[in-house]
Design a protein that fits this description.
CATH class of the largest domain: Alpha Beta
CATH architecture of the largest domain: 3-Layer(bba) Sandwich
Strand content: 25-35%
Radius of gyration: 37 Å
CATH superfamily of the largest domain: Phenylalanyl-trna Synthetase, Chain B, domain 3
Shape: elongated
Number of domains: 5
Amino acid sequence: MRLVVSWLRDFVDVKATPEDIANTLALRGFEVASVEPLDAGDAVIDFEVTANRPDCLSVLGLAREVATAYDLPLTPAKATAGAAVPSGDSDRIHVTIEDAELCPRYAAAVADIADVPGAGVNTPPWMSARLQAAGVRPISPIVDVTNYVLLELGQPMHAFDLDKLAGGSIRVRRAAKGESIRTLDGVDRKLEPDMLVIADRDRAQAVAGVMGGAASEVSASTRAIVFESATFKPASVRRTGKRLGLKTEASARFERGADVSAPVVALQRAVALMESIGAGKAAGTIVDRYPAAVQPKRLHLRRARLTSVLGAGVPDRDVERILRGLGLDVSAAADGWDAVAPTFRVDLLREVDLIEEVGRHYGFDRLEAAFPPLTQPAPAPDARIGRDRTVRRVLTAAGLSEAVTFGFVENKAAAPFEATSADTVAIANPLSAKFDTLRPSLLPGLVDAVAHNRRHGRRDVALFEIGARFTARGETRAVAIAWTGAASDHWKDGVRDVDFFDVKGVVERLAEAVGVTPGFSPAAPPYLVAGHGAAITAGAAPLGVMGQLAPAIADGRGAPRQDAIFVAEIDLDAAWTARSERGDAVQPLPRHPFVVRDLSIVVDDALPAEIIRGNILAAGAAAPAPMVSVRVFDRYAGKGVPNGRVSLSLRLTFQAGDRTLTDAEVQQSVEMILAALVREHGAVLR
């Protein structure tokens, strides 16, 4: 909002310099972008107004803040005196509201235009100068009047050529199916049935709250106009403007919440300005359609609550001065104040909103720093916070870097990672086509991050992300990994590219940190290379998947097709549920030695090593020598091994906590395990 200081002084007699005014409002929560000097000592202060303060998108609204800050009277009547036009029905224009939900109030007034030889010639220099300083281009007397009122009072207005309105009527209705309109920018726009339009008897003449139509545009030949001043539902204007790709000064105010009490006041002011510059004269009455009057919000402010939140007491006289200066009707109550918020303050909804207003204008700098009083113990932290911290520590220690990607993804990027198309959660009002779906997996975003790094010349990329996933069944929290390039780059070991087992090792380390014992079995989701994928489980509970990303998917997201990208994704909520309860007590080191036996067997090459390991552990549980671990340390296929078979070398570790194991116990245990392997898998000892 570009505030012209001389215009501000029409409302409040402030003697401070523009720089002082800007600094004063900055201390009261307004962001000042710049202060630009003009001729004759005038200046423009450019404010960045937040979305919850539509009242400050006007000279009057900012003047109210300045008057309160400097404890000066606000005198809007001097600057905004309106014409004495009565309200009632008109014989020249008929107004009907067919959708009061989207249009709570609509007012219109007819005026006859003076004989103006050309557009813009009768706009006085003082008005043109103020409009230009505020960033608005002067066009013609009538249009300039509507823009002047918009900037001064914050109420958008529009003018129709009365002779171009079929039937002399205005209908506020939703667009008909297939209806279109050519807007003032000369673009033909297709309307949708949920869009609100201002129509005459036959067709739409304006997109409500956004832009007028070219068919009823005021021109040099116009002899009678209809001023429009209305209030529209913010969500409707926001949705319509987004779909049509239109953003105007009017829509910027309507979509934040215009004052429902302002339409008639704005019409009176517009008519007065029009008559004062000789551009025309009111004809008849103001037609005001207001089906259901909006009642101002009534709030209660407790003195004790004000002191508690601000951390300091504010004198009663200052509380009342501030609230009345901001336009509230304030009366004393036993424990504080009763206040009625004006309709232009759409942001005042709760007691704490009043506390904020008092704090802003009393001065946050006058409040001493203090801890808020604690009336009850702080709640225990969510267990997931510690869990995620552990996951983050383990993965960064493994050499991966954390990534943070969008929760919104492109539908075609999400499709390969969805279990079914019914799981898709589409976004009703996406920011763009690139963000039209809630991610069903963390992998689409990570794959895009890997592709981005590869396109910028980074060969070795190892990323992880912790975040939420969304399906039609609900939301879950997961961790995902995407890894490509070198797994080792050391002068001693040389360069070795990452493979399936590197990612598997990270998954095992992560599972151990969370408190689960992971299991692995073959899996073939569509986004992984066939034969290079595994399902991750904890007992019978599925936790996730891991494997090599399909090259077609990598290529489709911009990564080099020849890259081998390995990915993994684990459901942290499921892992947390499946975790084993482990005591925090420190376990002493074993006092008795362990015994190691190596075993080489020949089995079917299609048999997963995980199944063999599980059977060994099951057989070892019944053996006389307790077995503490089993590890596959070699795999061989080739000369000396039949086709379709593979040699696996296993290292078995036995250890008892209460005694030293004998050779006989260990040998008996090995024989029991070998017998189980022969029985279950037809294993042959090498």
